[in-house]
Write a structure and sequence with these properties.
Layout: H1 2-15, H2 51-73, H3 91-107, H4 116-132, H5 161-172
C-alpha cells in the first residue's frame, strides 16, 4: 500500500506542469531576461475614461505634471514655447501628457533596463513637448509670457460633410411611435 501511494505521488509530480526555469541571465543581474514578459495592464487613454475614474486619473496626471514634469522639463514660457496654467481644459494636451506619463511609468520600471529612461527621453519626451508647446500648437493662444497669463481654447474644424448630413437625416426622421399593428 505504501509503495502504491509513493508511486501515485510520483505520477502526480511527473504529470504536473514543470516549474518555470530560473533565468539563465540571473547571475548577471538580469533576472527577467530569458523569461516570457509578464502581462502588462492594459492602458486606457484618458479621454475614454469618465466619472470618478477620469477624475482620479486626471488628479494623478496633474500631480506628475506639477511635481515632476514642469519643474524638470517646463523650460521658459515664450512665444516659441507657450504654456497654459489651465492645460487640463485642452483635451489634446491632456491626451499627449497622459500618453507621455504612461510611457514614463513603463520606461522607469526596472524591467526596462538601464537605458529605459534614455529611450523615454529620445522616443517620447522630445516629440511630445515639441507637439504640445509648438508656436502653432494647442497652447498657442495661451500664455506666451509669464508676465501675461492667458487661456483660450481655439476652435477646431467643423464636422465633416458626411457627419453633418447623417445628423440632419437623423433629426428629420420622425420618431417611431409605439403604434399597435392591426
Amino acid at each position: 500500500m505504501e509503495q502504491s501511494a509513493q508511486q501515485a505521488q510520483q505520477l502526480d509530480h511527473l504529470s504536473s506542469a514543470p516549474e518555470p526555469p530560473g533565468s539563465p541571465f540571473a547571475a548577471f543581474g538580469m533576472p527577467g531576461l530569458g523569461r516570457p514578459p509578464s502581462p502588462a495592464p492594459e492602458p486606457r487613454p484618458i479621454l475614454e475614461l469618465d466619472g470618478e475614474e477620469l477624475e482620479d486619473e486626471l488628479d494623478a496626471l496633474s500631480d506628475w505634471v506639477d511635481d515632476f514634469f514642469l519643474p524638470v522639463y517646463g523650460a521658459e514660457v515664450t512665444t516659441a514655447a507657450p504654456w497654459c496654467l489651465e492645460w487640463q481644459d485642452h483635451d489634446d494636451v491632456v491626451a499627449w501628457l497622459h500618453a507621455l506619463w504612461l510611457a514614463y511609468q513603463q520606461h522607469r520600471d526596472p524591467e526596462a533596463g538601464l537605458s529605459g529612461l534614455f529611450v523615454w527621453h529620445r522616443d517620447f519626451l522630445t516629440h511630445a513637448v515639441a507637439a504640445i508647446r509648438a508656436p502653432g500648437g494647442p497652447l498657442s493662444a495661451c500664455m506666451t509670457s509669464p508676465d501675461r497669463p492667458a487661456h483660450r481654447l481655439l476652435a477646431g474644424p467643423p464636422p465633416s460633410v458626411r457627419t453633418e448630413a447623417a445628423s440632419k437625416r437623423a433629426a428629420d426622421e420622425p420618431a417611431e411611435a409605439d403604434e399597435p399593428t392591426s
